[in-house]
Amino acid sequence: MRAVAFCTAAGFNLRVQQTGSDNFAEKLFTPLRFGILLALLIFATFPQVLLGLQTFVIRDYGFFAYPLAHFQRDYFWHGELPFWDPYNNCGVPFLAQWNTMPLYPPALIYLTLPLEWSLSFFCLLHLWFAGLGIFFLARRWTGNNFAAAFAGTVFSFNGFALNLLMWPSHMATFAWMPWVVLAVELAWREGGNKIFLAGIVGALQMLAGGPEIIFLTWVLLFALWVQQFAIGESPRKKMFWRFPLVVFLVIALSAVQLLPFLDLVAHSQRESGYADLRWSMPGWGLANFLVPMVFGHFGGGGVFFQYDQAWTSSYYLGIGALWLALLALWKVRDRRVWLLGGVAIFSLIFALGENTPVLPIIRKIIPQLSFITYPIKYVLPAVFAAPLLAAFALANLQGLKKRLAIVGTILFLLIAAILFWAWRFPFPTDNVHTTLLNGLSRAGFLILTGGALLLLMREFKFAPLILIFIAWLDVLTHEPTQNPTVLPSIYEPNLARADLKMNPQPGLGGSRAMVSPAAAIGFINFASSDPKENYFAKRAGYCADVNLLDGVPKVDGFFSLTPRESDDVLSYFYRTTDASFPRLEDFMGVSQITAPGEMFKWQPRETFLPLVTAGQKPIFLDDEKTLQALTQSDFDGNKVVFLPPEVKSFVTVSNQTSAKILNSKFRNQTVDIEVEAQEPSLVVVAQTYYHNWRASVDGQPAHLLRANDAFQAVEVPAGRHKIFFAYEDCAFRIGLAISIVALLGCLICLFLLPARKIQ
């Protein structure tokens, strides 16, 4: 409820003219009461999670989100920011990933409270916050409390939103979307302190992560601004500069996260044209809006997925929400309805990806769109628009009586046609019986929704509550659970380490584990219907990022962005299932590798080298030739090191030398090395090269070299020397200064000058 008080105190104009102030529904669905109702619905859906009895586990929640939160929490309690992850990909930037949420203030929830409960609570809290945001936005646009409450319920309870629970960063970004739209629209219409409030709200969404959701939020806002600017609802001169000012403030406030991210993007594997069009909405995917379990299969943990698309387990809106949204598009004459309808249509066309020529053509015109992987993500604007369209229909329901039955009948006939199609022309692995039951139950909810709408039009007192309950129950039952839960003990630290009993045991600065290419592919195809068994099995094989729970370094990892050269090297291993380069594995310090023909068993390697070696002969080759040389059977990382030709002038060493590493100590973001060399020598560190690393020899800056295409090296003079490597993110420091100045300015204008209007 604090969000309600905050918005009112900060200046959001939440009081609207209500149509019929004595109406029971208008009085029932106040912001406070709706907030309580939505919280109760979330509790009824996930009681075991909120009570701490169980926790989420499926897919990226267990293999990405939870391990990263565990890793970040360790940094937090040591008083550090997590700039670098030394445990995955031979080292990889962490803070700059953005979707890791290291600078998102509400992350303190899971950083300070017991993680096995608080991370799930964090996700559900944002699910509640998302519904509350749509409530306020729909209330402002329609002037109807009940319509807003229905929209808020639908926005929190739809297949797409429930799927996002497995990504805390995406869930948080999604939750801020309606608040950003509401705040920024108020800013360009009313000005004053609302400009600075909009900047803060927009920055909070930016810091939450989820670049695709942020991008689509601002595309929607730009379309809304253009529409209102063209109509001239507010003075155009003020609108013209207020919107860009808000954008500037959001960028400045989030520069502390944005600049490291853009820096990593510029040095990452994701160049223009990187992403392909996999996981587009299937050509028949629109049928899933009516029959959510048509044409699909059960994956790991018993979760249902469409064929050819595995990013979201559902985007089902609920039959009632779809019915009302279509009704609004047909008969409600409102500029916002037209905009939302257009956004939804384009959203669905883009989501079809490779199944229409539209997105491929546009991506050729705008190559930067290639950074958005998996076109199914474009369904988001439709998911955002549908609850608002439904709210417009409910706010004008009395004038839509004649069309209501027509749309309902069409939907009923479409469900029948889809079921006939699935019965007569199923895919080979379809469960036709399950599909028929699913479709018939949706037809049942269509009838129940029609009954509730009829009661609503006859002004039955409790009809609004009945309609909301039906909408919630429809989505709750549209598929087997999208978010299976297990006992929190499944995330116990060092659990796999204790069971596996590796000898030698990989450790930070000592050696690494390596998931074989065959096992990496096997993890993708492995799917147990039991979520606990599914997770335990893959945890034993250190799938994705679960190695972070055991503090075990490994060669690969699961991150959106990795340094380009590092990705080039690892791609040699993981582009096929049978790739094996033993000498390169030796250099990378691989002491344990997945056993042949296995996925969850390990075998030791005795020939691995220390992560720090010295005395190699430099050979100057370009990147392509270096990659080829690294994979040859005669490569010996203890004797030679490949350096790019452009650093030849910095290197005085020309032959193999006599040098000895006396000791080395790896920490999360530093490396201490002591070396003794009889003559100038090279010291090579099998850790990912990234330009933010700095090297010093005996306290004096030294030139950090990119060695063996993707790793680190430094030259030392003869004698005994101390080498120090440290990760220093200059983009973060610049962004921090910008963000602090911007935040101070916003707070001064927001609280000290509340009544001042900026002209």
Topology:
Elements: H1 2-10, H2 24-28, H3 31-45, H4 47-50, E1 55-56, H5 60-77, E2 84-85, E3 92-93, H6 108-112, H7 115-142, H8 145-156, H9 159-163, H10 168-190, H11 193-208, H12 211-231, H13 236-253, H14 255-266, E4 296-298, E5 304-306, H15 319-331, H16 335-351, H17 358-365, H18 380-395, H19 401-424, H20 432-457, H21 463-476, E6 485-486, H22 495-500, E7 512-514, H23 517-525, H24 531-540, H25 564-574, H26 582-587, E8 590-594, E9 602-604, E10 612-614, E11 617-620, H27 623-630, E12 640-643, E13 659-666, E14 670-677, E15 681-685, E16 693-697, E17 700-702, E18 705-707, E19 711-716, E20 719-727, H28 730-752
Parallel strand pairs: 7-8, 11-12
Antiparallel strand pairs: 1-6, 2-3, 4-5, 8-9, 10-15, 13-14, 14-20, 15-19, 16-17, 16-20, 18-19
Helix pairs in contact: 3-7, 7-8, 7-10, 7-18, 8-18, 8-21, 10-11, 10-12, 10-13, 11-13, 11-28, 12-16, 14-28, 15-18, 15-19, 16-18, 19-20, 20-21
How do you describe this structure in short?
By secondary structure, this protein is an alpha+beta fold. It has 28 helices and 20 strands.
Folded structure, characterized:
With 759 residues, the chain is an alpha+beta fold. Among the domains are: 492-604, no CATH class; 612-728, Chondroitinase Ac, Chain A, domain 3 (Sandwich), CATH 2.60.220. Helices cover 50% and strands 11% of the residues. Mean pLDDT is 92; it is low at 1-22 and 755-759.
